[in-house]
Amino acid sequence: VQLQASGGGLVQSGGSLRLSCAASGFRFSFDAVGWYRQAPGNQRELVAGLDSGGSTNYADSVKGRFTISRGNAKNTLYLQMNSLKPEDTAVYYCNVIVGGVWFWGQGTLVTVSS
User: Fold this and answer.
1) Fewer CB near the last or first residue (10 Å), C or N of the chain?
2) Are the beta carbons of 2 and 13 closer than 8 angstroms?
3) pLDDT tens digits, residue range 17-69?
């Protein structure tokens, strides 16, 4: 099982980025998928989640700005991030839970300048 995250970079405040997470090594049948982030000195936190029933949940800090979705091929996970703020700066990780086992991507750095 491998998760490859991409799409991070440097963006100005108010800008947008789309993160992608490509899954390989298993069929994309899951308990839940999500995006987490970890800023320096902080704990890793859930940004957005999607369960097998299609329900989504978001951290209060990103509601209305970020959207989690799956690609048509079902083996790709996206995080569309709009109206980015400097406090969104962090390493973003994709996560998949399959049969109660947690899998993580390698992380992609998002830096938002003011």
Assistant:
1) C
2) no
3) 999 999 887 665 788 999 999 999 999 999 999 998 999 999 999 999 999 99
